[in-house]
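Human:
Class, as today's exercise, you are to examine the entry below, and be ready to discuss the fold:
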Amino acid sequence: RLKESSCPSLTRYFRLLFFYVPVKRSCAPPSTPQGHQHPSPAAGDPPPRAQVGDPSVAGLEGSTNDISRYLGLLDPWYERNVLGLMNLPMDVLCQSAKAEAEPQEDAPEQLPILADMILYYCRFAARPLLLQLYQTQLTFIGGEKRTEVFIHSLELGHSAATRAIKASGPGSKRLGIDGDREAIPLTLQIAYSKTAASGRSHWNDVEKVCTSINLSKACRRHEELASKTECLNLTMTEVVKRQNSKSKKSFNQQISVSQIKVDKAQIIGVQSSFAVCLDQDEQKILQSVTRCEISVCYKPRDSAPLAPRGSPEPPPDPSGFHSLLCLPIATFSGALP
């Protein structure tokens, strides 16, 4: 919308619909970087070595469907009809949705179950669900600044670098993936604003030696959906004690993990840079970042989309969050009352 304030484009003349299809991969690293919103394997593709619902795979790869789980909390239909596909084995998902006793030569090719369910989702999910967007302003080593948005999570440091290594395909075996115990710690200046019921900002400024800092939406259970306060969980993986030895490889001897609910945060590398990953998407990993500022997205003031001629003006938003910028994801029943 900011870019289209000076140049008319799609959102001024078309009504865009957004759908979110979860993807769960096998333990084998992909040959090309693949984000969570990319299409799933087609019917003709060979099934991977591990099944989709294999719990050991989830432990190795880590979750890449936190956004889908959040949508499932808000819309039970989405959880059953879309997210529920992730519990099925890959060979079942690739089977034809409608089997024919005697296939005809001129008959159209039958869609696999996965493609048929995605088509069902895109046809019948007509209720938009507003997801609050967050923005991060990144400063790179050369001084260049860039603003990005994310829906659910931001990974910073070792966890983002590990995700980048996994996305490198066959090269990930050569590079190796170390845990937090063998990660190189970063000295970071962390300033954050704690969430308060009164709405006042109380800033805290600390300097920590960390391997990773992750921010994600604080709402994880259905009971927490009633809260009107947008906030993030800031998780710091802090190195309390590090073993340095000339004869042995240095490692983090003692690690502490702490979690704080914040609404804004600012992270600066002290004579060091770090990697940043947005929404667990390997195609949204940014390297050589020295400063990262995270805050809630607000609607641009002078960039409201123009409605086509003859169309009635949309009614004003009765909720108290009319100034927040939200992404409308199509679901079946919308948000629960």
